[in-house]
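Researcher: Sequence recovery benchmark, item below. Answer with residues only.
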């Protein structure tokens, strides 16, 4: 069957952000939009001639437009010369599971259809990203090439074929392409069985341990049910909101203290379960809450790094760890004590890929509720819960006890992120530009708000593996005592601009450790506002979301 060549024209704005191209569903449904972006991906990452049976993995988080987009992607993959495709049943594959499938089957790469934690539905968001053969998000040089290709298009290739039945497991053919609809959970579950001691975890649940897992009507429902309830014997009802829905039940699938409020309230209430956890739209983020004890993602990364050796996969220790720049320095202290390297990368999981591939790090994470390891090349929500469960099973104590003993041993990095969403994009850009100019006037030793400045800059990263350099990754102001303020514009939003302000300071004083985080950081919050002029410029007195 010959490919059909459809004339088209470049559509501006197809520049992948922090994690692939995220736009409104309406944008993706506009004539030629989806097809143009897919053709740009295929043009930029075309399998080399003679690559043979190049396999493409395709799946998404089940959000509105997922199935239609997958049908289009399959036809175009076939028309563009892919020989094989693996598709998750019903079009589902969590982001970490897609990474696992790519790696398990030696695929050329994969298309992950998701806008992650962004809302879904006809008026919500959609997104696509390409992951390479290591299972990880395409690095900047590839996303730049995709953008360039999108601006040079004059046609796209597709086939005239009926839809594939995504609900039926098994093989299908599409022109020359041999495809298979696969169980979205199987490869991932097999991988988790290799990493963790399922017998020990079964004993934990048999002993009455109570987990509450909120799948937020997003993609992790089938994974969490198969693993926690079916494989590990947690009672039915452990997984809540477990059925993936195209609009996530009308909710925002972001596992933070605003959108997972019901879980948070339950965990702070009487008779709370032992562990509360949630994951996001595409299953790569995690929220961890103990009984009466929220664990910030930065702290979770540090605590997991300190305890990972208690799970079989990490029993021989960690090669190194990494965190994104805005993530708190808590994990740095663990790395220092373990005598292993700690890398500081820009925001975006793609920056961990080289470090993981080179074997320089075993564990990595971000303040944005992402934690992962070298088992895949994505952050992984269900994996993070399994690692927490493994630590709790081995240490036979509560989350609160783990947190308290960690802070007693390492001190605490009080940490918060204030998000100011849906700002006018021009106002936000002007704020960042003027703030950069203001920070550039500061010199080491200058005093601000009672602290001495150590450095102020716009963060740039030199990848130690391939030597690539990334600039403009966030404005930071670091003080001599280790306190920091970081300002960044989000690269994942679809409306206006979101300004993220990250605030942190370290303490080893027991009374200060016990302080409420927002109170502990109030002076830095005030200083951040004064320096950026945020309230005056935007009229906003409070952040939209505090995490
Ligand atoms: C993505 C990236 C993460 C990043 C997060 C927030 O996560 O993979 O690395 O930390 O966005 O990015 P930003 O601050 O630019 O909005 P996800 O879960 O949305 O794919």
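Model:
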């Amino acid at each position: 069957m010959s490919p059909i060549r459809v004339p088209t024209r470049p559509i501006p704005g197809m520049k992948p952000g922090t994690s692939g191209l995220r736009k409104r569903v309406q944008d993706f449904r506009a004539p030629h939009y989806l097809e143009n972006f897919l053709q740009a991906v295929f043009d930029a990452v075309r399998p080399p001639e003679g690559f043979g049976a190049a396999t493409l993995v395709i799946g998404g988080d089940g959000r509105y437009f997922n199935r239609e987009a997958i049908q289009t992607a399959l036809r175009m993959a076939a028309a563009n010369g892919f020989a094989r495709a693996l598709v998750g049943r019903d079009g589902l594959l969590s982001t970490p599971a897609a990474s696992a499938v790519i790696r398990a089957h030696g695929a050329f790469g994969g298309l992950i259809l998701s806008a992650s934690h962004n809302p879904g539905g006809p008026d919500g968001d959609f997104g696509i990203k390409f992951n390479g053969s290591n299972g990880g998000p395409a690095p900047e040089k590839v996303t730049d090439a995709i953008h360039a290709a999108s601006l040079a298009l004059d046609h796209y290739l597709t086939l005239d074929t009926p839809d594939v039945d995504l609900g039926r497991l098994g093989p299908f053919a599409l022109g020359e392409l041999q495809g298979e609809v696969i169980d979205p959970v199987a490869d991932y579950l097999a991988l988790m069985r290799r990493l963790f001691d399922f017998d020990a975890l079964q004993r934990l649940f048999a002993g009455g341990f109570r987990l509450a897992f909120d799948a937020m009507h997003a993609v992790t429902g089938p994974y969490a049910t198969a693993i926690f309830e079916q494989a590990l014997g947690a009672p039915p009802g452990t997984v809540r909101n477990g059925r993936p829905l195209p609009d996530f039940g009308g909710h925002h699938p972001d596992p933070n203290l605003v959108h997972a409020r019901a879980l948070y309230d339950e965990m702070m209430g009487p008779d709370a379960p032992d562990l509360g956890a949630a994951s996001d739209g595409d299953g790569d983020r995690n929220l961890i809450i103990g009984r009466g004890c929220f664990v910030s993602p930065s702290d979770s990364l540090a605590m997991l790094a300190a305890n990972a050796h208690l799970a079989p996969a990490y029993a021989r220790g960690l090669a190194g760890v990494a965190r994104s720049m805005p993530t708190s320095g808590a994990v740095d202290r663990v790395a220092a004590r373990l005598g292993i390297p700690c890398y500081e990368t820009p925001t975006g999981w793609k920056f961990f890929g080289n470090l993981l591939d080179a074997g320089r790090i075993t564990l990595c994470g971000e303040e944005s509720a992402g934690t992962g390891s070298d088992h895949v090349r994505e952050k992984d929500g269900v994996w993070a819960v399994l690692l927490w469960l493994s630590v709790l099973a081995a240490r036979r104590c509560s989350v609160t006890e783990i947190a308290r003993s960690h802070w007693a041993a390492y001190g605490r990095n009080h940490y918060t992120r204030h998000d100011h969403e849906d700002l006018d994009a021009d106002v936000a850009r002007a704020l960042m530009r003027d703030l950069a100019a203001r920070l550039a006037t500061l010199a080491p030793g200058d005093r601000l708000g009672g602290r001495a400045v150590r450095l102020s800059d716009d963060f740039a990263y030199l990848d130690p593996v391939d030597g690539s350099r990334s600039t403009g990754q966030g404005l930071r102001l670091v003080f001599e005592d280790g306190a920091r303020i970081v300002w960044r514009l989000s690269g994942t939003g679809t409306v206006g601009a979101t300004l993220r302000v990250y605030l942190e300071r370290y303490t080893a004083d027991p009374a200060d450790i016990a302080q409420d985080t927002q109170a502990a950081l109030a002076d830095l919050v005030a200083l951040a506002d004064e320096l950026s002029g945020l309230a005056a410029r935007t009229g906003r007195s409070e952040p939209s979301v505090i995490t």
